[in-house]
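Thread title: Can someone regenerate the structure for this chain?

I was given the following input by a collaborator and told the matching structure tokens would be attached. They weren't. Posting the sequence so someone can regenerate them.
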Amino acid sequence: MPKRTDLKAILVIGSGPILIGQGCEFDYAGTQACMILKKEGYFVSLINSNPATIMTDPDIADATYIETITEESIAHIIDKERPDALLATVGGQTALNYAWSLSKKGILQRYNTKLIGVTEDTIAIAEDRMLFKQKMTEIGMKLPFSVIAFNLDDAINKAEELGYPIMVRCSFALGGKNSSIVKNQDELRSLYNRIHNDPLQKVLNRTLILDQGLFGWKEFELEVVRDNQDNCIVICGIENINPLGVHTGDSISVSPIMTLTDKEYQEMRSRAIEVIRALKVVGAANVQFAVNPHNGEMLIIEVNPRLSRSSALASKATGYPIAKVATLLALDYSLHEIGLDIIGGNVAAAFEPVLDYVSVKIPRFQFEKFLGAKDILSTKMQSVGESMGIGSNFQEALQKGIRSLEINRSGLEEVSNDNKEILNLLTTPCSLQIYAIADAFRMGMDLESIYQLTQIDPWFLYQIKDLVNVEYEIATTDLKEVTRERLLQFKRKGFSNQRIATLCNSDLYTLQNICREFKINKAFKRIDSSAAEYPATSSYMYSCYEDECECDPSNNKKFIVIGGGPNHIGQGIEFDYACVQALKSLQKLGFETIIINNNPATVSTDYNIADRLYFSPLDEEELLSIFQKENPDGIFLQFGGQTALNLVKKINQSPFKIMGLTTELFEQTENRYKFNHFLQKIGLSFPKNIYLESKKDKLDNVFLGSIKLPVLIRPSYIIGGSRIKFIDKRDDLIDAIENLEYPILLEEYLVDAIEVEIDVISDGQDVFIPAIIENIESAGIHSGDSTSCIPPMRINSNIQNKLYEYAKLIALQSGIIGFINIQFAIQNEIIFVLEVNPRASRTIPYVSKYCGVNLVEASIHCILGKKLSDLKLKTTAESYVAIKKPVFSNDVFSNFILGPEMRSTGEVMSFGLSFDEAFEKMQEFPTKQGGQNHKSTISLQDIHQTYLKECYA
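Best answer:
Regenerated them for you:
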């Protein structure tokens, strides 16, 4: 049926800051939803507190409220905007929980605002464990044997009856929050008390469900879509390699499903459709199953009646735009009325994708950032991001996924040769388990023994065993005698040139020459969603080693943007924001655009965000193959964070042009020794320091009249302050420098200094400086972990003028065109330069949304040769204060002290007429009477009335 005509305005709730368990996949879903709603002619209001996202850019919605997401703030926006409908299925668990609460309390009904895509009853049934159990039992679905507990004594008694270990689940939970495998009464008591003290859980539902332990069962997910005519399709099946007991977000996941028979899959498919029909979801839902590996018994675990973390993965694995389709279905379109440009032109969305390739998602962890954090995977999600590899087979996709993680691994490299350690890694699920399995095969352990320890399906174990066998074959191969056929077999199993070279005790360039001589070249295939049954029209590519190449590059003037890879602490969604803005800016100028990235959760890997998308590891071998196929007019590295920037040296050796940057300019700012020499040359101050080139430089000589404790150890070429250490004791310094890679810089710590940050755009002759960012915490706390303020509050006009002067001097003297991010420290009114980054920084979205200028677009213009004087840039928000506050995933990792290494996972932003008002509005539980009802609760578009006007002459 046609879309609803009774709706004119729709409010979308975003997911808020990036947290472990709720990441940038909801920015992807929410962005798609807002764009579709606007295209359909609706007035779209949006509330989201995250400044780093594309979603909160003012051209995505009609009225964008960068406010903390609370009942009060949503209600206030509803009162102001009077939306006819609320879409809450694209903002993760946060949006769903608040929608349910607003409906339950009658706030939506008071304003005649309807929930679309899901109802209050559907949310309650899916999220309340007791109601969910009742509903599933009604329709004949099998669930794990479980009991409901209403208080601690009840839980203890019922756990004894059930028998430990048990799985404890909580209603309305995010990322496995407040769930856990409980092995005894003390653990159960501790978990209950934690849940009891959770403010949000008190608001929602404090009942617990105690499940029988299904440990060792296999876990599967199906992404299902339903329209209001009761048509249902399954978009994607996902198999988690880790057995039940490891959160799906922390498990290595594979599409399509590998280890079920067709009969088993069809039964699972039928059950998933029956469940989504019973819940009456209109749009997308994620259904999770457990399967007993010994007898095939199948149980329903849970249902998410919304776009899930896996929806983004499924969309990128299949090429099917689930968020787009789900949004249109919420408007009452049927699947047959929605056209998709994936295969053979425009086809109805009512088809189920079929894959003739394999995608493997691998989570990325950062336990090392948190003191005492144990690398043990359980029911609570702990990964900070993910990569995805796509290949012709599982082995190729797995190895490409590993190479994409940016953890200095080119394959299943050894983690230990100690038998006891390997056994421990096999027994306890952890981030290193997949590599320990390979080590176990290397030490001669048989497959059955490894299965008994890991409970990972033998099919996957056999694939790893085969890769280990091939590794041995490679290691015993004489490259002078290797045949083309044998080398091609190695490549088809996902072995990179670097990995083969390492195994053969050779070097990368020797392998490259042999491949060139044998004419072993990558072919690029299109994600067509139909297993080649229809002609592919998508421009979404992956590499393999087959005969036919489908990329079909054009001769148009084109540019490639290198993405930021998997999200991790220090390199997050703000770089995806910069990449997407770069692509949009280049397209507006009439150029063809290409993005290369491997993060399945982001907007930049949406198949239609660029003219062509290459899903690929960001390493030299893959990138140069793409460059050679496409022959671009230039490559942009400034927008993908340090991941992209660190590729300068490798790409600079190729014939392809890097835009706005050279190896020399990169070295001048990223190499600490050369950086200090540069500052000295232009006459700017920097903290006292000493440069140690090797361990031969003795500390006794270093400290004679040079610098004093405390000091910072500053390595070169870093992101998020990784490996920077604060040392205030001589013995600690001696211990620290023994274990570091040289050369290193020892820098005297500036006590009680104010840190400021400035983003500069340079055209080579002039600069544009939109704002000065003042960090509230003292210098020495990583800027990503500091609360920041625009405009500065404690810096007088004289110092501000000097900061502008110094920033301009650095930018013009550096020779960098485009973005330069500069960090200063002010101590006793003396300005010190701390750091210069020749790229877009994590503050670019924050500053852009404050000042009302698309800074990425301005940077693109400058890099392409336009002068700032022609752009006529002007900031518009000077009467407001904007505060950016870091958010830490404290419910996952809480044992840390703020320092020079970044540990926050996300951030929130708020505007106010004063510092106090802006700061108060960011609080999740406001302290003032009326909390969120500030008179400056105003949309971004109203703050920047000139933003949407053409900025460029």
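The domain at 754-837+843-943 is CATH 3.30.470.20 (D-amino Acid Aminotransferase; Chain A, domain 1).
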